[in-house]
């Protein structure tokens, strides 16, 4: 027992490794923030494309389906390898010269965009058709009805599942660390190989949990608030 | 009356949902400033008829002309057409994420491209007129059904429509809330609004309609002045329907 504590939760090692893991963790947060912003925008675009009506939009819809199917089905670590190891290996002047962090963010973005597209789509489909019909009856065109009536309601409804996906994304930034970005997990791993002490992993875990718990509680709060509002609307 | 005959004019309109013919060879003329009430059982085609006029549904056969423009030839600008045709639904369909004022202002702002100030001024005037100015900043779910339906009417009026379609607008309301909505519609007849009203409120129809049409199974069986249709109908079907309504105590 003492041996375990010494290896995984040694107070001295904790203090010693904290600064490195913390500086690595800032890279996690950095990747996460950029990827989340990109995911929010791209996923919305793809979800809207997937919902476009008419035969003319069929190729676009098909493209959106292929994209979500492909990246939802591919493990993040494989996409990350392909981006971080593969793209620089191509030696194309335009895209091969960036840092591992940039490729890592790109990998996170394409994979999570696929998930979040589905979340948005569920939200859009949950808005009753009569809302779009009422908007169109007032003379709003397709885009206006979507922009002012459907999407605001859809997005509001999917905020909790969106936040859930972002908790996943935060944690998955550590997968990028396994391949070549010196973030919190990689810093902990370096420390472990140097001193044969794994306390750094505990430090990293604590930092991730500190970031996730407020988000999780905030999500719960939103869900509860919605339930209350819906119950109030029924009486 | 009959200043401009055939402001709305349907000729041989047929509409099918798959195998089912919901409208069969319907002819109807509505003069400007007139009020036409469509009566008939649920499923008789009243709603579909209204929805064909503002192109929420495509007709399969026949023509519909609104304000001198044929709307059924496939080339009409749907959005432009809907600007001059207001429709109010049974379920209100207000936008729940917008305040009452925003609901009324949306189309004038985005479709008529009015400035925020002008749109707000008109919207507040309308809310004043329907007696809900004090609710302008409430969200729809804070309003009673009758209030919500009045807002839905105001939202349609904010586009200055030349024609108003009312689709059983009191059917989802508690009985004590029906009067406030019907009073508002009554006030619209006073200002000469052209309206086509699908309704189950027979005494209201008798009072406001210039003409009443009885529909059954997608066919207009008879049409004429209220006194004639409601008191001395020629068709057996109409008599049966009215007898059933009388039994139901809705007369």
Question: Gist?
Answer:
Chain A contains nine helices and no strands. Chain B is α/β, with parallel strands linked by helices and 251 residues long. Chain B has a single domain, classed as P-loop containing nucleotide triphosphate hydrolases (Rossmann fold), CATH 3.40.50.300.
What sort of overall outline of chain A do the alpha carbons produce when their principal axes are compared? flat
CATH superfamily of chain A: MetI-like
Spatial order of the strands forming the largest sheet of chain B:
6-7-8-3-9-10
Using the coordinates above, name the CATH class of chain B: Alpha Beta
Span between N and C termini of chain B?
27 Å
The whole-number mean of residue pLDDT values of chain A reads 89
Largest sheet of chain B: 6 strands, mixed
Q: Which superfamily, in CATH terms, is the homologous superfamily of chain B? A: P-loop containing nucleotide triphosphate hydrolases
Q: Architecture of chain B, according to CATH? A: 3-Layer(aba) Sandwich
Give the number of domains of chain A. 1
Largest sheet of chain A: none
Characterise the protein shown here:
Chain A is 85% helix and 0% strand. Chain A is flat, with a radius of gyration of 22 Å. Chain A has 235 residues and is mainly alpha-helical. Chain B is of the alpha/beta class. Chain B has a single domain (8-247), classed as 3-Layer(aba) Sandwich (Rossmann fold). Helix content of chain B is 37%, strand content 24%. Chain B has helices spanning 46-53, 78-84, 100-110, 116-129, 145-157, 175-190, 202-208, 226-231, 236-247; strands spanning 8-17, 20-30, 35-39, 61-66, 69-70, 85-88, 163-167, 194-198, 211-216, 219-224. In chain B, strands 6-7-8-3-9-10 form a six-stranded mixed β-sheet, with helices on both faces. In chain B, strands 2-1-4-5 form a four-stranded antiparallel β-sheet, with helices on one face. Chain B starts with 7 loop residues before the first strand and ends with a helix. Chain A binds chain B through residues 130-131, 133-141, 144, 148-149, 152-153, 156, 229, 232-233, and chain B through 54, 56, 79-80, 82-83, 85-87, 89, 91, 93-97, 106-107, 110-111, 141, 155-156, 159.
């Amino acid at each position: 027992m003492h041996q375990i504590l010494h290896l995984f939760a040694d107070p001295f090692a904790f203090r010693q490794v904290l600064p490195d893991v913390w500086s690595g963790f800032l890279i996690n947060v950095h990747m996460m923030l950029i990827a989340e912003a990109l995911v929010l925008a791209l996923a919305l675009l793809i979800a809207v494309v997937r919902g476009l009506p008419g035969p003319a939009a069929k190729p676009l819809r098909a493209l959106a389906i292929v994209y979500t199917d492909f990246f939802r089905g591919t493990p993040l670590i494989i996409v990350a390898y392909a981006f971080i190891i593969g793209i620089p290996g191509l030696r194309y002047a335009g895209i091969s010269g960036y840092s591992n962090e940039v490729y890592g963010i790109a990998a996170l973005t394409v994979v999570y965009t696929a998930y979040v597209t589905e979340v948005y789509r569920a939200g859009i489909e949950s808005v009753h058709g009569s809302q779009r019909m009422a908007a169109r009856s007032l003379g709003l065109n397709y885009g206006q009805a979507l922009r002012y009536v459907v999407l605001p309601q859809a997005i509001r409804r999917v905020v909790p599942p969106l936040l859930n996906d972002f908790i996943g994304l935060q944690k998955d930034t550590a997968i990028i660390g396994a391949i070549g970005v010196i973030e919190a997990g990689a810093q902990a791993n370096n420390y472990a190989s140097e001193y044969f002490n794994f306390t750094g992993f505990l430090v990293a875990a604590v930092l991730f949990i500190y970031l996730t718990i407020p988000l999780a509680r905030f999500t719960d709060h939103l869900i509860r608030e919605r339930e209350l509002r819906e119950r109030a609307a029924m009486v | 009356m009959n200043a401009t005959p055939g402001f709305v004019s349907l000729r041989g309109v047929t509409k099918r949902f798959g195998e089912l013919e919901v409208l069969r060879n319907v002819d109807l003329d509505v003069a400007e400033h007139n009020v036409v009430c469509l009566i008939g059982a649920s499923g008789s085609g009243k709603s579909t008829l209204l929805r064909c006029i503002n192109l929420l549904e495509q007709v399969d056969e026949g023509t519909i002309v609104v304000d001198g423009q044929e709307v059924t030839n496939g080339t009409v600008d749907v959005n432009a057409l809907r600007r001059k045709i207001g429709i109010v639904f049974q379920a209100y369909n207000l936008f729940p994420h917008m305040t009452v004022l925003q609901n009324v202002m949306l189309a004038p702002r985005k479709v008529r491209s009015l400035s925020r100030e002008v749109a707000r001024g008109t919207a507040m005037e309308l809310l004043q007129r329907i007696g809900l100015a004090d609710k302008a900043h409430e969200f729809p779910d804070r309003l009673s059904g009758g209030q919500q339906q009045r807002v839905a009417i105001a939202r349609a009026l904010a586009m200055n429509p030349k024609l108003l379609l009312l689709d059983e607008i009191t059917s989802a309301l508690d009985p004590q809330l029906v009067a406030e909505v019907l009073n508002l519609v009554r006030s619209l007849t006073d200002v000469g609004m052209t309206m086509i009203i699908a309704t189950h409120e027979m005494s209201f129809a008798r009072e406001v309609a210039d003409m009443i049409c009885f529909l059954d199974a997608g066919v207009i069986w008879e049409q004429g002045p209220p006194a004639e249709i409601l008191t001395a109908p020629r068709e057996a079907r109409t008599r049966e329907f009215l007898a059933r309504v009388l039994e139901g105590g809705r007369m």
